[in-house]
Amino acid sequence: MASKFTSRKSCRSKLEKPQEPSVFEMTGKTMQRFGPGKMLIPTPMMVDEIIRGVRKGRLITSAIIRARLAQKMRADVTCPLCTGIFVRIAAETAEEDRALGKARVTPYWRVITDKGGLNEKFPGGTAAQARRLKEEGHRVIRKGKRLAVAGFEQSLPRIPAAAGKAEVGSVSLTIDTDVNRR
C-alpha cells in the first residue's frame, strides 16, 4: 500500500537543501532532558555522510551517529529527533536513487536501533532491511514482535580510546568520530 503522506519535493532535494548546522546552548526542557551544554542540529547531508562511511558487513546505531556528529561540531549532544528524520531522508533518497538506476547508494539498511533492532520506517520496512542485512552476512532474529540483528555489537565501529561517548542499549561506548579514516 502506498504511503498516505506524499511530498511535492524529491527526497534528493530534501537531502541537499542548503542549510548550515546549528549549535546552541541548551536551556529549559532541553537542558533538563540532556543536561547542560551545547546541542547540535545537524544537516541531512551530515547524517548521510556518516552513513555512507559504514562499510559492508558493519553496522551503526543512531546513538553512534549522534555522538560522531556532536564531537565533530564540538557539541555535547546531537538532536535525536532531527537525526532520526535525516536518517529516514537519507534512506528514502537512496531508494529514489536506486529507482533512477544509480549503482552506489547510501547504505541506510546498516543503521539499526541502539538495541540492535531494525527500523520499521525505512523503505520496504523491516523485511527489506532484514533481507539486505542477511545478504551482507548478518543474522536477523525475532525479538518478541520485532526483528533484530543477532550479536550486532561485534559489527559496530571499533572502539578506540577516548574519542567520544554513546549509549548503545545499556552499554556505554567510546567511539571513533573520525569518519574520514574509514
Name the features:
alpha/beta; Arc Repressor Mutant, subunit A; 6 helices; globular; 182 residues; disordered C terminus; 35% helix; 3-stranded mixed sheet
What does this protein look like?
By secondary structure, the protein is an alpha/beta fold. The chain has a single domain (15-100, 107-181), classed as Winged helix-like DNA-binding domain superfamily/Winged helix DNA-binding domain (Arc Repressor Mutant, subunit A). The chain has helices spanning 11-15, 28-34, 44-52, 62-72, 80-99, 125-135, and strands spanning 22-25, 38-41, 60-61, 77-78, 111-112, 140-143, 146-149, 165-168, 171-174. Strands 1-2-4 form a 3-stranded mixed sheet. It has a two-stranded parallel sheet with strand order 3-5. Mean pLDDT is 86; it is low at 160-182.
